[in-house]
Amino acid sequence: MSIQDTGSVPTVEPAPPHLHMADAAISAHALRRRFKATIAVDGIDLRVERGTIFGLLGPNGAGKTTIIRMLTGQIVPTSGTATVGGFDVVRDREQLKPLIGVVFEDQNLYDRLSGRQNLEFARWLYAIPKRRIDEVLDLVELRDRARDPVQAYSNGMRQRLMIARALLHEPRILFLDEPSRGLDPIAARQIRQTIQHLRDTGMTILLTTHLMDEADHLCQRVAFIVAGTIVANDTPRALKLAHSTPVVEVTMADEEDGLREVTLNLRDAGDQQRLATWIAADAVRSMHTREATLEEVFIATAGVRPA
Amino acid sequence: MHPRMILAIARKDALDLLINKTTLVMLMTPIILAALFAFIGTILGPSSASILVYNPDNSPLARIVGSTYTNPTYVNAPSASAVEAAFGSDGARHSSPYDLGIVIPVGFEAAVRAGDQPLVQVYINGDKNALQTTTYMTAIVTNYARHIAAPADPVQVSTVTINPQTSATPQHTVTTFYALAAAMSSLFIGLTLVSNMLVEERERKTMRMLLISPASYADIVIGKAMIALVYQFMLAIVALAITGGFQGQVPLTLLFVLLGSLFSLSLGMLAGGLLQTTSATGALSGIVGFIFIVPTFFLAPFIAAPNNVVVVLIKALPTYYIGEGIYQALIASTTPLTLARDLGVVLGSIALLVALAVWALRRQASVIATG
């Protein structure tokens, strides 16, 4: 495992699995997964507090989906341990199933069946009351299209239906694997609104994405994963503060061209002096501080672009 | 195993199969084939003969003449002229609904005995009779009259027949063949259905959703096999019903249809465990379909199969014994020996296929679990 020091902001190291296990909704220790010669996940440690949204961010092939598949009991880790909702993901797989909901990376719905029939099937599997179908359809705003075959749905509608299916049995922990992948901006915003709503209900959510803005808006905590290794793990705010340079963007009056924009580094003594001079001369028309984006932090930390 | 999960999966698949137009066409195929067989049987098989009779004294001659047909129906004419009008004059081109007409005069037997040489008129519709019918009819009427005139047979005739036909009528034989063909050709549906359903779940990646649900892999396989068995068995029964297959030893027919369905399903589960795409299962179904249909032709009652290499190879197929079991039951000729042989081969084959399918599906489940 390698957790990069994020600078002056205190880094929260994942707790060893034997500590505070009762408080963690998801906990992984030295979790590793090998596919023949390829190491997809290389001994990660992870801890997701109850009622929070945790983002696993990384480029395609970084190992995000493999982590979700291990944590949801779909595949067995090569080594390491993980608990979800207090249950071991290998040993207690059957007890784990009712606790979790999964929205998969692929839109794995029954296309010939209607949206409602897809949910009916899930209802039969989990033995839950029929009224719950209308509740989740309302939640994802699909009730008016529920009787249409899924093959007539847009990508966004399919994604919402997958969320509805994952929520049908009222899981305590929700795994969302690239929930906005391939969606247009409006559909992606609808999905984010649904996730925000779920966060407000106190559900624990682990989401993977390579969309840094999405993670920044939704997650209380994020981990950057590159080549199967977590390279940073903190709150988005802390990560941005740790990696940002104190920069101000100054718009100032210019004798020749009217207005001129200048970016100044406040740690640089020369820039500090120039700014003081311009303020004294009343040349500054506007001044904004600029925070690093999560994407910039990711690039700085991981050395690669997120997607 | 969880019965609720199995039932849930079976319900979903039952619905999905009916919505899927491709599968629906496939499900209809055995029924269409059976209807086609029944239709061809009606056209090609011997049909009933319609005989117009003027027979005021109810002479037995009318029945004797009619007995030369497979299934005669008699229509009584009010007069001799009505019969003549229905057929027309000798050599005329005239459309008539009747195969044969016969006019037997009043007091025919008495007139024969008195040596009056009464006139019997026989009208033959050339469109519906063989060329030799005129000769047969003349001989039958003359022989009957001679018998009336002199009851003692003037000659004794002894016949010896080698390779005798079965007691079944030609119509019965054709019906048996079509019922057997319809049942056998319906049996590959189970193989196609179950292998497609298993592979499609993996292909569409819905298997992942199922495996994080409370259903186990065994529940999924059993649910699918169950619904495929229901559809398969129902189709075979409908195919048999359409082709008149509920004859002979019906319980044994049903037993072998059920065993054939189980054989087909176990083959389908094996294919579902080994193959990765629905295109592959479709291709396999097409090829394997032949092993169900081909033995039918070697069991056909009107084909004397020679003992050669091809026949030996066909008899090496378990489907031959499914077909033989159905065929023997249809003609009510099952003996303890044939029953034991057919049951032994079929049950043994099913057991072997189930074992192989379990191995393949376990291997598949392990591949899914290990990624």
Radius of gyration of chain B from CA coordinates: 29 Å
The number of helical runs of chain A is: 10
Order of helices and strands of chain A: EEEHEEHEHHHEHEHEEHEEHEH
Number of strands of chain B: 4
Number of strands of chain A: 13
Note down, in words, how this protein is organized.
The complex is a heterodimer of chains A (307) and B (371). Chain A is built from 10 helices and 13 strands. By secondary structure, chain A is an alpha/beta fold. Chain A folds into 2 domains: 17-235, Rossmann fold (3-Layer(aba) Sandwich); 245-290, no CATH class. In chain A, the strands form 3 sheets. Chain A has a 6-stranded mixed beta sheet with strand order 6-7-8-3-9-10, sandwiched between helices. Chain B has 371 residues and is mainly alpha-helical. Chain B has helices spanning 3-19, 21-44, 61-66, 80-87, 108-113, 133-149, 170-186, 188-203, 206-212, 217-242, 250-274, 278-299, 309-315, 318-330, 336-370, and strands at 50-54, 73-76, 100-103, 121-124. Chain B has a 4-stranded mixed beta sheet, with helices on both faces. In chain B, α3 (61-66) links the parallel β1 (50-54) and β2. Classes of the chains: A alpha/beta (307), B mainly alpha (371).
Descriptors for this entry?
heterodimer; A: 307 residues; alpha/beta; Rossmann fold; 2 domains; 4-stranded antiparallel beta sheet; disordered N terminus; B: 371 residues; mainly alpha; abc type-2 transporter like fold; 4-stranded mixed beta sheet; 4 strands; elongated
Briefly summarize what is shown.
By secondary structure, chain A is an alpha/beta fold.
Outline the fold blueprint:
The complex is a heterodimer of chains A (307) and B (371).
Chain A: E1 24-35, E2 38-49, E3 53-57, H1 64-71, E4 79-84, E5 87-88, H2 93-96, E6 100-103, H3 115-126, H4 131-139, H5 155-167, E7 173-177, H6 185-200, E8 204-209, H7 212-218, E9 221-226, E10 229-234, H8 236-243, E11 247-254, E12 258-265, H9 269-280, E13 284-290, H10 294-302
Parallel strand pairs in A: 3-8, 3-9, 6-7, 7-8
Antiparallel strand pairs in A: 1-2, 1-4, 4-5, 9-10, 11-12, 11-13
Chain B: H1 3-19, H2 21-44, E1 50-54, H3 61-66, E2 73-76, H4 80-87, E3 100-103, H5 108-113, E4 121-124, H6 133-149, H7 170-186, H8 188-203, H9 206-212, H10 217-242, H11 250-274, H12 278-299, H13 309-315, H14 318-330, H15 336-370
Parallel strand pairs in B: 1-2, 1-3
Antiparallel strand pairs in B: 3-4
